[in-house]
Design goal:
The protein is mainly α. The chain contains 18 helices and no strands.
């Protein structure tokens, strides 16, 4: 279990030692030109996620998916669901690769997305520490497709925060090739910038229609049958939805205290409303799995709110290490509870690193 704690404590120590960036200075940072510390973080997370061995509840399923691509043509791969992820599998298996190659690529995508997105926040290392217990350990290491899709989505969100809508749409559509549910982020391209309600409505409708036609139309019946008619349930879905709803409520209630630029406020308030809505729908929707999958793409809200919170409730521009420590303790408790009491936690324990596993 200690590797999970080490990977959490390193960014936590950096968060306690780090400073605070004003809105203008953090958005002016060269987020795509990380220094050695950030490159080391990306490399460490990539290897940690990519070379995991028999970690995750769906480990066997992912190996089966990889091996089944061997017999398919390129056309069959690209015309199926989640073509980005399965194209990666096809390329790996056709060249004699293994599941570790797939996981390394997906881990690299997730690590880069997390690093770039975190560097848009006022306390970047705190954002990384917040991401470790659930976003990294559970999602990126347990749900490989969704993890890669989240990495691409965070690249898109980082672009959107810099008013680069076309880049955001590109990354969001790329994320949808790894997991279709990433299309839920596309309306932010319009919601975050336009103040005209008619333009906003038309834009959302247009983006939604294109995304539906490209990614969902051919698979709608299957998705409806799997998630709604079958009433699939995800263990812990309520807790995960609540983990998004808590920071959402904090932002919606005290948004004036957050040092967000206007377009950032608009974007994250919409995301916060979506997080609260998903939690409110939990008793109504027959499939908690459907809500759970959508909620995964709202996890970046946790990074945003908690990396701003020390300065929202403390003294802006100061170290506010007491509040940073409180947030780190909260996420340490989250990690402790999950590793010790979650239903599927045994699938993560012990952590095994492939190059060191005895043959």
């Amino acid at each position: 279990m200690w590797p999970y704690w080490l990977i959490f404590l390193i960014p936590s120590a950096a968060a306690l030692a780090g400073g605070w960036y004003s809105p203008r200075s953090r958005l002016a940072r060269r987020i795509y030109h990380p220094n050695y510390a950030w490159l080391l973080l990306i490399a460490t997370l990539t290897l940690f996620m990519g070379y995991r061995h028999q970690v995750g509840a769906d480990w066997g399923s992912y190996i089966g998916n990889l091996e089944s691509r061997y017999w398919l043509s390129l056309y069959d791969v690209l015309s199926g669901g989640d073509p980005g992820y399965y194209l990666l599998n096809w390329l790996v298996i056709q060249n004699g690769g293994t599941i570790y190659a797939v996981n390394l690529v997906c881990g690299l995508i997730g690590a880069i997305g997390l690093a770039v997105f975190s560097r848009t926040q006022p306390r970047p290392w705190l954002a990384v520490a917040v991401a470790i217990p659930y976003l990294v350990i559970v999602v990126m290491m347990g749900y490989t497709r969704q993890g890669a899709a989240l990495g691409l989505s965070m690249l898109g969100l980082a672009a959107l925060l810099r008013a680069r809508q076309r880049q955001f749409i590109f990354w969001a559509l790329a994320a949808a090739t790894f997991h279709k549910s990433a299309v839920v982020l596309l309306p932010l391209a319009v919601l975050g910038r336009s103040r005209n309600r008619w333009i906003m409505t038309l834009g959302i409708g247009g983006v939604a229609a294109v995304a539906y036609w490209v990614f969902v139309q051919d698979h709608f019946d299957q998705l409806y049958a799997n998630y709604i008619e079958a009433e699939y349930q995800s263990a812990g879905a309520l807790v995960r939805l609540a983990m998004n709803a808590v920071p959402a409520a904090i932002l919606l209630i005290w948004w004036r205290r957050f040092t967000l630029l206007h377009h950032e406020q608009v974007i994250w308030r919409w995301v916060a409303l979506a997080a609260v809505t998903l939690l409110a729908m939990y008793p109504i929707v027959p499939s908690s799995t459907a809500l759970d999958r959508l909620g995964l793409f709202l996890i970046p809200l946790q990074l945003v709110v908690f990396s701003h919170l020390p300065d929202a409730i403390g003294r802006a521009g100061k170290s506010n290490r007491d509040w940073v420590a409180v947030i780190l303790v909260y996420y340490a408790v989250v990690q402790f509870v999950w590793l010790n009491f979650a239903t599927h936690a045994p699938a993560w324990l012990p952590y095994q690193f492939y190059p060191l596993v005895a043959s």
